[in-house]
Design brief:
The protein is of the alpha/beta class and about 325 residues long. It is built from eight helices and 16 strands.
Length: about 325
Amino acid sequence: MEKGGILSMSGIEKTKICQGISDISDSYMGFIIDQWGVLHDGEKPYEGVVECLRELKARKKFIIILSNSGKRAEENRERLKKIGIAPSLYDILLTSGEMTWQGLKNQDEGFFKDLGKKCYVISRGGDRSIVRDLDVEVVDDIRDANFLIISGADSPEKTLEDYEPILKEAVRRHMMALCANPDSLGVMGIEYIMGPGTLARRYMDFGGVVQYIGKPHQPIFQKCIKILQEREIYPGQTIVIGDTMAHDILGGSLANMDTCLVKSGLHAPSFHNIKTVADVEKAITVLAGQYNNTRPSYIVNSLRWGKALPDRKHKKRALR
């Protein structure tokens, strides 16, 4: 199996359509896999995911689960365990929330340096784990804060407009915002919900300064590359698998890695009423045009191994 897409007669690389991950597994040693929308829907794993991860591990592939979750790695690890994705099915779990926590702990480089000790946190369900065990005080009044953390949103209970008074006050005070989850949309069951990235962009619309931590921004991909290189696995031997063009496909491509788009995730509406290979190629071309003409190397329906494992079942469990 050749790596990457196929060159068309025009010289433009086309995306290779795959039946499952078994079609490409032999070409790579490192697998960087998105979490929400690829492994699970926030409530249960997608069909075939557990079997696929088992097959990859059986072939000694190194698996990094890379998530824009605003929560720390350990909390995500526990969430996956509860819904039936055991720690033995992957090697490393890295989140943007974890990178934010580490940066806030040290506050010794880049935009983390000298941020201050008082922060206002916008999160889902009032979660403040992103600053737990840190020498940082969470304040309840934005006027008392040195900086702002955006790690989640209470969507659909709250709308973008509900957050605007806080964002405007932070802008008036020239406050830096750390966006610990750049996702604009998230998947919860069968619904799409507003992500923290939407709040961060509105903050910028008001004139605020935002530092994004997570995909597609390169620091989190460079962290993955460093982890892989310690195992003598290099970008050319690694594939990024995700369901978003803006974060997974664009970010992986910028890091010089091949990519695979899972079309049953966030971009599923773009593939409705697809009947032919030509229809799939057209849909990908339209998507690529929206993201700097970046095309995935491969596309699959979902993260499943393929037709080789028709009889295996996995147990689905509720998230909470």
